[in-house]
Amino acid sequence: MTKVQASSSYSFTVEPPMALLINGLRCRPLYRRRGLRSLLTHAPSKHALNPAKDHITKALEEAQPPPNLLSYPKRWFAKTFTEPTMVLLSGLGLLYNGSMQSLQLWVDYHQKGKPVRTRSEIRHVQRNKRDLARVFPATIFLALPFAIPMLPFVFRKAPSFLPSVFITDEILAKKMHVTQTKRAELAPILLASLGQALEARASRGNAKNSSVTQALERRWKNMFNNNSRPSEGDLIALQPVIRDNVNILDLSSSQLRVMGQFVGLALPWIASQSRLYGWVDWILKDDELLRQQGVQALTEYELLEALEERGFINISGQKTGRLRTMLAEHLRFTKTASDVISRRSRAASSRNEPQLTTTGLPLEEIASMTTLILTARALGVHERS
């Protein structure tokens, strides 16, 4: 027993200290177990092995994929041929439908005696007539070789060359931007030409009502020299001196050409005086139709069309509510000016039976309204936020 105990005592003392007894069985130390050996050793992390690996992986994940060279010809073909062709086909469909609607209005007028009275119908007939007038030159252009690839350039640089049914929202935005830039450049030239015309007539002694005219001239010069934007009342007060000295009946051809360019007349050097008179005559009539209809019923396209037609400058990128406000202020301005001119014309005893126009104003008065409206546009009277 002593030997057995001694041997067992000896075997216990030489056994490694980490030996375990599990379920009555003696097991090997943990560090000898092959599957658990990694638990007793320190395994370096991935960050320690390669600290820049995560940054590289993150950069690769955030990087844009390389461009697919095979997609360039496809995009070029779609932009050069497919998209212009779709715009062309859809525009032809709109032109056909619009022509049929105009024909129906014409038939109703001649057979049923039903006149075209609403502004929407009048604008539709006018727009359709302009589009049909542009069909012939557009057809000649499209008959040229490689005309389809040139359509994006034409839409961008000369949208008025083609019918309005081909003008998309993107093309309209570019057109408004080009118009704004051009008018911003012409505005100081227009004001300078009007000031020179007034000074020239005053220096030659041709100004009418010299005492009143001289006072208004000083007011005109002070208004522009102080770089202050006048109000509607200031411009309406200046209307007599505009009527007697710088209306479109008294201006030179070069000054009329600047005014024609400002309102967007094609070939403004040809019959600019009669065309400007036709422009202001239509504006005054259309203003009356808009007062009856209201500006709230107009779409954004119709608002841009009306403001661009009236010579407004800063209309590109404006919100619809702001566009309505600008048009409403213009309608109030022309209404006030027309009422003042009408009362003044009736009260003027020196003018015997003045020649009335379709708007009910004398010829020289409506001629002065052209200068009055364009002066307000060049000064930005109704474009203040």
UniProtKB/TrEMBL annotation:
InterPro entries attached to this UniProt entry: LETM1-like_RBD, LETM1/MDM38-like
A biological process term (GO) from this entry: intracellular monoatomic cation homeostasis
Protein name as catalogued: Letm1 RBD domain-containing protein
Topological type in the membrane: Single-pass membrane protein
Entry keywords, A to Z: Membrane, Mitochondrion, Mitochondrion inner membrane, Transmembrane, Transmembrane helix
TM region(s), chain numbering: 132-155
Domain of life the protein comes from: Eukaryota
GO MF annotations, alphabetized: ribosome binding
